[in-house]
Amino acid sequence: MRIAYLSTDPGIAYGGTKGASVHVAELTDALVREGANVLLLVARVAPGAPDPAPGMTIEPLPGPGKGASAAERVSAEPDRQAWLEERLDRFDAAALYERLALHSAAGSAAARRLEIPHLVELNAPLLQEATRYRTLAEPEVADLLERSVLHGAELVLAVSGPLARYARSRGARRVAVCPNGVDTDLFAPPATPSVRAPSAVFTGTLRPWHGIETLAEAWRLLGPAAPPLTVVGDGPGRPLLEEVGARVTGALPHAEVPAALAGADIGIAPYAADAPPYFSPLKLFEYLAAGLGVVAAEIPGVTELVDERTAVLVPPGDAEALARAVASLAADERRRERLGRAGRALAERHTWGHRARGILDELGAPAAPLVGAEA
Question: I want to staple 70 with a disulfide (CB 3.0 to 4.6 A). Which of 32, 137, 221, 321 is the partner?
Fold first, then answer.
């Protein structure tokens, strides 16, 4: 099957280190492994990005890129739609799969003109997120375009339950919950228990909503008893974590993340007290695949995946609870091993291959549900 994958967000570069970039690369690679021929259309390609696998073609989109204003992006929509129609037709695309972005409905319009299925992936309530954490330019246009895309899609794939509800509130006619995934082949758990002292790891951008202050405060509370902490990522929270003794590697290419996890025993996904409830944390899937003992904040996107059999759950933003959970897990090797085995088994049911196979099944047999049942 010939599938075009569209990502118009100029902040998401193919081959980049941020979670969104990893998501795009992992899912498109999985689609190819499952037999699809993929045309990946992205706003930009990161310097040094790996060459695509056979069966995938990567092309940058024409028009305004990173740094362009919302007004410039909106004014370029007609030209981008025309370009997409021509390119999708020349590729003979059987379907268009799109990662929803702000100020962009050209893909929706092109798919409608070509009369091909349009599947939309929803990773965040983008208007709300932009208003809360940045500045939402052209808000009326952004609202109109998002409603149009969600309503026009044959299927909206929301990465969590809260986002499924959001999609329906914005006019989506059919919605399924389709969380993130993981390539378990990259994250093989250790064959034998480690003989060294246990250590912990956090991966991700070091921004407040990821619980960086909570993580730093937990390590202050643990004091000399704190296990060594490796932080794979970068951002404004870096000084806080370095102050409590964390080894911060900075952002790493995704190909180097499995080795970083292989050197740890406890994976941490803390989140702030006011963190949005809709995340489907990529780090959580990767911790599980690596067989780590997981300590995670009890937010919907987390508890939809794990329970007490596969993770230690703590209230978001609660540094004392996080410190107690880490200390307890660091002192209990058998419990870490038990959680690690159960987590690995769970991850094997949530691979990118499963996600890709569900998408292809959806396109080949529309009556079959994508992920168990529609949300």
Answer: 137
Q: With H, G, I as helix, E, B as strand and everything else as coil, classify residue 128.
A: helix
Is 333 contained in some domain? Answer: yes
Q: HSE-up of 374 (CA within 13 Å, CB side)?
A: 14
Place of tokens 């509800």: 165
Same domain, 103 and 200: no
Q: Would you say the pTM of this structure is higher than 0.85?
A: yes
Both tokens of 97, joined, read: 């799969």
DSSP string, 283-331: HHHHHHHTTPEEEEE--HHHHTT--TTT-EEE-TT-HHHHHHHHHHHHT
- Specify the 3-state DSSP secondary structure of 277: coil
Cα 29 to Cα 14, 186, 255, 320, 362: the distances in Å are: 12, 13, 14, 40, 18
Residues 6+ apart with CB under 8 A from 23: 99, 123, 180, 282
CATH code of residue 73 = 3.40.50.2000
Residues 281 and 297 in one domain: yes
Q: Kind of pairing, strands 37-42 and 56-60?
A: parallel
The rounded percent of the chain whose pLDDT value lies above 90 is 89
Stronger pLDDT, 21 or 135, i.e. the higher one? 21
> Mapping DSSP to helix (H, G, I), strand (E, B) and coil, where does residue 16 land?
coil
Question: CB 193: neighbour CB atoms within 10 A?
Answer: 11
| Per-residue confidence (pLDDT) for residue 371, from 0 to 100 | 47
Pairing of strands 229-232, 293-297: unpaired
CA atoms within 13 A on the CB side of 168: 11
Tokens of 272: 């702030």
Phi, psi of 205 (to 5 degrees): -70, 140
Least confident of 37-41, 60-64, 326-330: 60-64
Domain of residue 143 covers: 2-181+351-364
